[in-house]
Write a structure and sequence with these properties.
The protein has 20 helices and 34 strands. The protein is an alpha+beta fold and 676 residues long. The protein is globular. The two termini are 50 Å apart. The structure holds one RNA strand of 76 nucleotides.
Length: 676
RNA sequence: GCCGCCUUAGCUCAGUCGGUAGAGCGGUUCACUCGUAAUGAACAGGUCGACAGUUCGAUUCUGUCAGGCGGCUCCA
């Protein structure tokens, strides 16, 4: 990765500023990373004046050098990228006709794209895993060689995709822009080829494989050890464009050790156990009947409880926060979406029109146009602002068949959508209000770890966005300032804005560290103009409001999916479809527990009793599998004492709790939205 | 939408190298059942995703479509 602009480095610091544990060294005479750190097995490359270099590359005098270990982010990238090279070597060893695409490191692993006549099968992957293991075991050396463009073209004459990358570089485009990951192959500086050498240093040494690559690499394939495994293969468009040919991409994972690989595989297994699609079926929450159509969920009674409780709570909180609950239809004449400006941008993702009595109607894909009509239904005074309209809007989006996925990507969804109409002066306070409100709501549902993404217009694509540069700059500043005030991490997303204005989106981390995009706050100065929205100002003039869109969860369906995975189906009491399951030790105690259940129901608790003729142990098993927060057990000892015994989902137990206390305890757990 | 794989009972899956199918769980019934993750037995349940084609015969082979899974692209 030579000569590429890189993040600030320690060369900018005076020696006294260096607080990191890794010491830097300033070279006085030419040397190499291997000379400096050769005795440290965990050092895989060096950072020379902020850029990563191979260990055996000669470093000039006067450079600031620091070691990069295999377990730090840069070191892991090097490890994974080197694994990608081994994969490519294995592929061409088995199939010399395979043409190379690109092979960058990605989160937790790497991939490499190949143009091959036949897609890879699972058996192919097994064979490749074995071939890779052999290459790793034989300890090939990665050797860097600088080449001219002419030399590179000659050596890579048989690799059309590599030649294309050289061409991109030659044309002066930024390789990073040209193809996601292509910068791994061709940097912005000199061209290099990496050779894999068998028996390096010996007379018999042979170059067994080579690839155009900016590097750097591990010194030796042996370092990959037993931490590498191929995961799957899939197709991917060359350079990320659907206009280009499809290549076959092989994904792998790579870790510094076998144990870390195993830990990663265990994390994947845990994610699979939590998969909301699996739990949704097991817990009888929802389904996607083929007869209805792809991406259109139905909620079963237990899933319906969760959805209703979520909605009830969110509606109540909105009302407390000054929102007015409104209702709008699922369908409208399509002129409305021309007025709003949506149709030219989103026609592809709206269901096609239906012709009724000479008018074209469309299923609603967004709620804002209808809320605008509510605003416009009569004259508005500045005294009414901020005017906040909120509803659970059912919207339908024609998502392409390949992207529909569980509850997280559907074609029919319920948005917890609000639109605040404010004066331009009120906008910053309202954005702040919405953002804090959203974060507090998410915390009530048990999510506590957030970062924000701020999506702005992309000047390179003027056709995608509406409005003047000044309006965009002003709107972006409002969002930026409020987002900064939260103290949360801010990630820029240039080009990610809606056509009508910039947005902040909230990303939440779940219990196993995955992030999900949830709510958004969007600043819109375009639709008020399109709809001619006005209010009367104190001086009697007509003024244009700004509208601020906000969905707190994004969609109820997706958020339910996130919650199912976050809690692994073990919901906090207030959300659990069944909060209490009473299990009599024997039939003789049925009536005793029926009475307890009746007392709980009188307090609004979702309590059931297991009156089946299963044996006691089986009933415990069933209760456990249902993930009910409180299992209440009663037998002779409990009944005599006027008590019940609690059994919790982790198997722990609290025996002999007086019935009145038990009811109070359960009611309190629901009221406090407690997890038990 | 694109590429690959998949679709057999409510669920999870066997199976048929072309002669219309099985298990476990779940369901129903009966018997049993007084303390912490499976009591036993019997019964019911399937146009083998849909539609074409090849064939004496298709759940099995071929094609198209639908749905699912994994990616790519997209995601107001």
């Amino acid at each position: 990765m030579s000569d590429v602009a890189s993040p600030p480095t320690r060369q900018d610091l005076t020696p006294g500023d260096v607080t990191e544990t890794e010491a830097t060294t300033t070279t006085t005479v030419p040397t190499t990373g291997a000379d400096l750190y050769g005795d440290r097995k965990d050092v895989v490359v060096v950072r020379v004046d902020g850029t990563l270099w191979d260990l055996d590359r000669e470093i000039p005098g006067g450079a600031v050098v620091e070691p990069v270990t295999i377990d730090e982010p840069d070191g892991l990238d090097v490890l994974r990228h080197s694994a990608a090279h081994v994969l490519a070597q294995a592929v061409q060893q088995i199939n010399p006709e395979a043409k190379l695409g690109i092979g960058p490191p990605v989160k937790d692993g790497f991939y490499y794209d190949f143009d091959v006549a036949e897609p890879f099968t699972p058996d192919d992957l097994k064979a490749l895993d074995k071939a890779m293991a052999r290459i790793i075991k034989e300890g090939q050396t990665f050797r860097r060689r600088v080449v001219t463009e002419e030399e590179a073209r000659a050596e890579l004459a048989g690799e059309p995709y590599k030649l294309e990358l050289i061409g991109i570089k030659g044309s002066g485009d930024d390789a990073e822009e040209a193809a996601d990951g292509a910068s791994v192959e061709v940097g912005a500086g000199e061209l290099t080829i990496y050779e894999n050498v068998r028996g390096a240093g010996r007379e018999s040494e042979t170059v067994v494989w080579k690839d155009l690559c900016r590097g750097p690499h591990l010194p030796n394939t042996k370092i990959l050890g037993q931490g590498v495994k191929l995961m799957r293969s899939a197709a991917a468009y060359w350079r990320g464009s659907e206009k280009n040919p499809m290549l076959q991409r092989v994904y792998g994972t790579a870790w510094p050790s076998k144990d870390e690989l195993k830990a990663y595989q265990e994390r994947l297994a845990e994610a699979e156990r939590r998969d909301h699609r699996r739990l949704g079926t097991e817990m009888d929450l929802f389904s996607f009947p083929d007869e209805i159509g792809s991406g259109l969920p139905v909620f079963h009674p237990k899933g319906g409880v969760i959805k209703r409780v979520m909605e009830d709570y969110v509606r109540q909180r909105h009302i407390e926060e000054g929102f007015d609950y409104v209702g709008t239809p699922h369908i409208s004449k399509e002129g409305l979406f021309h007025t709003s400006g949506h149709l030219p941008y989103y026609a592809d993702t709206m269901f096609p029109p239906m012709d009724l009595e000479g008018s074209e109607y469309r299923l609603k894909a967004m709620n804002c146009p209808m809320h605008n009509l509510i605003f416009r239904s009569r004259g508005r005074s500045y005294r009414e602002l901020p005017l906040r309209l909120f509803e659970f809007g059912s919207v339908y989006r024609y998502e392409k068949s390949g992207v529909v996925q569980g509850l997280t990507r559907v074609r029919g969804l319920t948005q917890d959508d609000s639109h605040s109409y404010v004066t331009p002066d009120q906008a910053p306070a309202e954005v702040k209000h919405l953002l804090n409100f959203m974060l507090s709501l998410l915390k009530d549902f048990g999510l506590n770890d957030f970062y924000l993404e701020i999506s702005t217009r992309d000047h390179a694509k003027p056709g995608k966005f509406v409005g003047s540069d000044e309006d965009w700059a002003a709107a972006t500043k409002v969002l930026q300032d409020v987002a900064t005030e939260t103290g949360l991490e801010l990630v820029p997303d240039p080009g990610g804005a809606a056509f009508y204005g910039p947005k902040i989106s909230v990303q939440a981390k779940d219990a196993i560290g995955r992030t999900w995009q949830l709510g958004t706050v969007q600043y819109d100065f375009n639709q008020p103009e399109g709809f001619g929205l006005e209010y009367t100002a104190p001086d009697g003039t007509k003024q244009r409001p700004v509208m601020i869109h906000s969905a707190k969860f994004g969609s109820i369906e997706r958020f339910m999916g996130v919650l199912i995975e976050h809690y692994a189906g073990q919901f906090p009491v207030w959300l659990a479809p069944v909060q209490v399951l009473a299990v009599p030790v024997a039939e003789a105690f049925d009536d005793y527990l029926k009475d307890v259940v009746a007392q709980l129901k009188a307090q609004g608790i979702r309590a059931e009793i297991d009156l089946s003729d299963d044996r006691f142990a089986k009933k415990i098993r069933n209760a456990s599998k249902q993930k009910v927060p409180f299992t209440l057990i009663a037998g002779g000892e409990d009944a005599e004492a006027g008590a019940v015994s609690f059994r919790f989902r982790d198997g722990t137990q609290e025996n002999g709790v007086l019935v009145a206390e038990a009811v109070e305890k359960i009611v309190a757990a629901v009221r406090d939205r407690a997890q038990v």
